[in-house]
Amino acid sequence: MRHARVIAIDGPAASGKSxxxxxxARALGFAHIDSGSLYRALTWVSVRAGVxxxxxxxxxxxxxxxxxxxxxxxxxxxxDGINDPESAIRMLEVNAGVSAIAAxxxxxxxxxxxxxxxxxxxxxxxxxxxxxxxxxxxxADLKVFLTATAAARAERRLxxxxxxxxxxxxxxxxxxxxxxxxxxxxxxxxxxRQASDAVVLDTTALTFEEQVExxxxxxxxxxxxxx
Length: 227
Ligand code: CDP
Prior knowledge:
This protein is an alpha/beta fold. 52% of the residues lie in helices and 16% in strands. Strand 3 (67-71) and strand 4 (74-78) form a beta hairpin. Helix 5 runs parallel beside helix 9. It is globular and about 50 Å long. Cytidine-5'-diphosphate (CDP) binds next to helix 2, helix 5 and helix 9.
């Protein structure tokens, strides 16, 4: 069976992976999958139901048909009965709890099955996350590790939420991101780390368009892209 062409974009919290991956996918005519959306959906289930046992979380996720669904170009997370799951999974309680949920190996296995199934349905896909190039698709056609200073990432995340960026809020958000990075890099199961064959892109001094352009150029240099 011919595998889908895969571009893996990994990196720390709020490094711009998802928006960059979506734009790269559009430029190449590939699908985009945000792997974090599945960890967030499981965390949403855990927060909503007040349950922490992975088996119970998965049973509830099954009942709510938590899954990736393709709507045209985009592959989005689905949760039964929730009109705007993309907003629900980005609430603050989910941000605070997601790294603990993502550390549970059973839940990681469940996510990886969904990611591989959704990718197999495409001819080419850009997937962003923490372990895509290291654990989920170690044979990806192109691996990019996207990074930026914690302060630059915190500022972007606050602007993305429409906040005015004041120094106190910036310091608090920087600390929250640093804590999530600490948990994600120190966990035993598929920790966040750079694949040895990943291209590192520090976006601190790049505009969004520049970072997208660099990855699209890399992809084309590797013979990737339908468009
Ligand atoms: O967009 P942001 O950087 O805030 O995070 P995300 O990509 O939505 O991922 C949320 C959380 O899910 C991360 O902090 C990780 O704990 C976890 N995650 C993971 O462990 N592995 C992935 N492939 C993707 C996300």
